[in-house]
Amino acid sequence: MGSLRHSLILMLAVCAFMQTLASAKVVRVEIESTEQVAGGESFGRSGAYERITGRIHLEVDPDNRANRLVVDLHLAPRNERGNVEFSTDFELQKPVEPQRGNRRLVYFVNNRGNKASVRGAFHAGGGEDWLYRQGWSFLWCGWNCDAIVSDKRLNIYVPVVEEKGKTITGKIYAEMCSTNTRRTYSMPFYWGGSIAYPVINLDNSHAILTVRP
Q: Does pLDDT of 119 surpass 70?
C-alpha cells in the first residue's frame, strides 16, 4: 500500500502541472528507492520526510491540439494506442506521515537536470528549512532532452524522430553571448553538458557568422 500511495500522489502532482500547456498522461510510475531525508530528522509539526526516486512513464497524443507546440511530435513513433511514449526521472520529497503535511506540492524546475539547493528554503540541514516545517512536498523531474544522460542528473527520455525513415537534417542556429571584453578566448556552440548535433559534412563554406552588440 505504501508504494501505491506514493504513486497516486505523484501521478496527481505530475498531471496537474503538465495540463497547463501540453496534454499528457501518466501511464506508469516506477519507484526505485525510498530513503529518509536528513537522516530522519523531524521538521517540527511536519515530522520526518522521505525521498522517493524513480521514473515516470507518460504518453502524449500527437493529434491533440494542445500538443501542437511540441516540435516534430507528429513524426515520433507511436504505440498501439496512437500515442507517443516518453519517460522522466523524478524525485519526490514528502512527509512520511502525509496527514502531517499541508497537502500542497511545489514543483521545482531544475537546471539542465541538476537539482539545485536553495539555502533556507528546501535544503535539509541548511538555513531554517521552513518549507519542510510548513509541511510542503517537493517534486523534481527531468525536462532537458538535450542534456547528456547521467546518473547524477534528472534525465528525460524522448524518442528520436525520423522523416520517411531518414534522419532529419537542417541548419543549426547558435547564439553565443559574452560580457568579457578584456581578452580573446573561444566559446563552444553547445554548453552545460549538452548533446551536440553531429554534422552531416565538414564543409563550412556556407556558414554565416553575424555579430551584434
A: no
